[in-house]
Amino acid sequence: MFEALRNAWRLHDVRNKLLITGLILVIYQFGAHVPVVGVNQPALESLLTSQAGGLIGTLNLLSGGAVRHFSVLAMGVYPYITASIIFQLLVPLVPRLEAIQREPGGQEKIQRYTYFLAIPMAVLQAIGQVNIFGTLVGQQIIPGFGTDLMLTIAVITTMTAGTMFAIWLGELITEQGIGNGLSIIIFSGIVAQVPSNLGNLITSSTQPIFNLIVFVVIMLVSIVVIVYIYDGVRRIPVQYGKRVRGRKQYGGGTTFIPLKVNAVGMIPLIFAQSIITFPAIIVNLFPEGPVRDDITRTFGNQQGLGYWLTFFILVVGFTFIYTDIMVAQQNLSEQLQRNGGFIPGIRPGKRTQEYLQRVVRRITFVGALFLGIIAIVPGIVDFFNRVIFPTEAISGSAGNAALVISGSGLIIVVGVVIDTLRQIEAQLVMRNYEGFMN
């Protein structure tokens, strides 16, 4: 592997791609430390140190750490991800969009529409993010927002421009650098937060050695399982009929359809994390009482069996729903029939689609359980911590080894590393070098 990395660095064009990627990430991190005008720093610090729930962690994750400083890049690429998910859900439901996607250059049109939709999504998220943060902390994050017209316009414009700048940097990495740019930006933000979280785990806990050992075990086991599931596929054999044109015979080959065990990545985790924070936010609109306190304590502080069981069910449910939508959008049976292919023993058309759907749901069950367990690992660790060390009162990443890197963060880190190494390996193989797998 190290020899392959040295060979990659010796190649002029690959070295340039790596340097461009690193330079863009440095620029992004500089932008992530430029705060929005008018930010109330004491209120922001109070929000970050409170148990505000998974919403802050999710937004900070997708912004590459920019939410921690409430910078101009505080929304990161999340509006674009939201817009992309919306179009993925709408394309199979709206005939016009489905027709556009099938046209020559249709995918580029859908991509352009996604960029356009990201702008109003960024505006809405900027307004919602400022208001929700103020609700969670009990005071305005940006004093005067909503009442001072010029300040409100300046904040919304700045945050929206920051999002589009982050998207542009991500696309620049994809075109000029190595790997998927948007994923690498999120990856860099996750990795940048690990040293401080690990330092808190060791210095702020009464059981630093135990927590460090738990952290190492969780990382090793999680990485092995994530890689195994990430590369896991079910191969469906496909046979192509023979065609005779003139004196030549075409087709007749055999291939397979690779159906991934986890075909949706961390998208269900993002959906579930966003939705499960709503009860703690909405309950603030109601009068104070025991019900409000219970909901805030459970869903706002990420504590208790009710929270983790709900989170697990949401992740598993969204995994099945999103996978079904993606499979329906691919139209595998129609593509096979158009190209003269068929699955042995299965009639083409509707029967093929039903068979593929049935197989996908069976293997998705494993992928859904995997994502669900990854999501609730912090709850499992917290439970054992309370049993073994009942006097340990520290919460957050300082007392829970599983929160140094969240489950969704681990999936992103491992997935980005695998994809990037494969792209570098492809560059080496094209130049007759041995890759990472040899």
Q: What is the element layout, followed by pairings?
A:
Elements (H helix, E strand, L loop, with lengths): L1 H9 L1 H20 L9 H9 L4 H9 L15 H13 L4 H8 L3 H32 L11 H28 L4 H23 L4 H24 L1 E8 L1 E4 L2 E4 L2 E7 L6 H10 L1 H5 L7 H11 L4 H26 L1 H7 L2 E2 L7 H39 L18 H24 L8
Antiparallel strand pairs: 1-4, 1-5, 2-3
Polypeptide structure, described:
By secondary structure, the chain is mainly alpha-helical. The chain folds into 2 domains: about 200 residues, Preprotein translocase SecY subunit (Orthogonal Bundle), CATH 1.10.3370.10; about 190 residues, Preprotein translocase SecY subunit. It is about 70% helix and about 5% strand. Strands 4-1-5 form a 3-stranded antiparallel beta sheet. It has a two-stranded antiparallel sheet with strand order 2-3. Strand 2 and strand 3 form a beta hairpin. The protein is globular, with a radius of gyration of 24 Å. The mean pLDDT is about 80.
- Classified in CATH, the superfamily of the largest domain is SecY subunit domain
Which percent range describes the beta-strand content?
5-15%
Number of domains: 2
Envelope shape? globular
Which residue ranges are poorly predicted, with pLDDT under 50 across at least 5 consecutive positions? none
Kindly, what is the distance between the CA atoms of the first and last residues, rounded to a whole number of angstroms?
A: 8 Å
CATH class of the largest domain: Mainly Alpha
Radius of gyration computed on alpha carbons = 24 Å
What would the CATH topology of the largest domain be? Preprotein translocase SecY subunit
The number of E-state strands comes to 5
CATH architecture of the largest domain: Orthogonal Bundle
The main β sheet shows up as:
3 strands, antiparallel
Q: Percent helix among the residues?
A: 55-70%
